[in-house]
Amino acid sequence: MSLVRTTVLMCSPLSTPSASSSSNRVSVKFAVSRCSVASPTTVVNGNVDNKPWERNEVRLGLPSKGRMATDTLDLLKDCQLAVRQVNPRQYVAEIPQLSNLEVWFQRPKDIVRKLVSGDLDLGIVGLDTVMEYGQGDEDLILVHDSLDYGECHLSLAIPKYGIFENVNSLKDLAQMPQWTPERPLRVATGFTYLAPKFMKQGGLRHVSFSTADGALEAAPAMGIADAIVDLVSSGTTLRENNLKEIDGGIILESQAVLVASRRSLTQRKGVLDITHEMLERLEAHLRAAGQFKVTANMRGNSAEEVARRVISQPSLSGLQGPTISPVFTKRDGRVAADYYAIDICVPKKALYKSVQQLRQIGGSGVLVSPLTYIFDEETPRWRQLLSNLGL
Q1: Where are the domains of the chain?
Q2: Which fold has domain 7-39+152-254?
Q3: Which of 73, 116, 144, 218: CA 20 to 30 A from 177?
Q4: Low-confidence residues in the chain, pLDDT < 70
Q5: Contacts of 52 by beta carbon, 8 Å cutoff, 6+ apart
């Protein structure tokens, strides 16, 4: 067992109502209370002699269930880091390409907690989870902050009707005279660290929070809460429940991130090397996503003359510039370079325009193929990580 860092809510229960709707089969259970967030505490579970820093294996935590879990495994597979799990009921697996690495499937919030406690070294979770359960812990360090899936945002939402009909900003909400110590703004949320912090910074002094399991969007309609703080993707669920987001009400933009323990990176053998390889593979694959290699033949007197024609078109510059190479043909008994092959890298959205421009300057036989990886001389995120670690 391990040391687990938790947040303690100092609460006085007010009521614990529950309700269900047979028409839409949504059940909601609320533990309504007036809460204040106390400082994080350390709770010891199990054997107090456990010493996580004495293990030799490097541990990576991955989400165990849901869309985030599926997308994470897909991304790793695309980076040639496929996870091999002998038994789907087991919580431990491996990535054969990375020796001495254990993969542990955990709930996202437990991944963050175990990074802090030292039971995990690396983890892939949503940024919202890192911020909520990491609570600003200086040991947590973002290795890659944009894995391009799991996009959502944490937001405050209020009803469209009643006293909130003309409330369209956080400032409007804070200035409503209804909120007093006796009748505070009631907010239902699962984010008991980020939500109170945000409300305080937003100038809302009289607020009470209730924790909830289930569909938070039902809370205002049921009269259990005035507002909610929850993750929003498309916003469809909010609109269908007559809720709206307001200006200044977005707390956090989130997506999947690779996070690590600073202590592990600097103190545990092998963690930095594995992190480097993972980061290189992730960066190369993500940079290549949506990019295409375009090859065409073009007549010309020299590589320089062909290059000038290509560079004159704004969509044909490639990563650093076009690659021009001679195409040798045999004519009248002699070998000559009458054509030159052009290789450029273009984004998907500019593909057709690039092909048209190639044709306009004499390109023919245009070939298009998707790119899987684009490796830099060194990924900027690796240099940034070393700088953050003081290495």
Answers
A1: 7-39+152-254, 51-150+255-288+381-389, 291-370
A2: D-Maltodextrin-Binding Protein; domain 2 (3.40.190)
A3: 218
A4: 1-53, 213, 314-315, 317-320
A5: 2, 3, 117, 118, 119
Among the listed residues 346, 373, 347, 385, the one whose alpha carbon sits nearest the alpha carbon of residue 286? 373
* 252 and 153 Cβ atoms separated by less than 8 Å: yes
* Type and span of the H or E element at 147: none
Is residue 262 within 8 A of residue 139, CB to CB? The reply is yes
Neighbours of 243 (CB within 10 A): 24
Distances (CA, A) of 301 to 25, 298, 308: 74, 10, 12
**What is the rounded CA–CA span in Å between residue 2 and residue 19?**
37
CATH number listed for the domain at residues 51-150+255-288+381-389: 3.40.190.10
Dump pLDDT digits (tens) for 282-331: 999 998 888 898 888 888 888 888 888 888 876 676 666 788 888 887 77
Q: Are strands 227-232 and 185-189 parallel, antiparallel or unpaired?
A: parallel
pTM of the model: 0.78
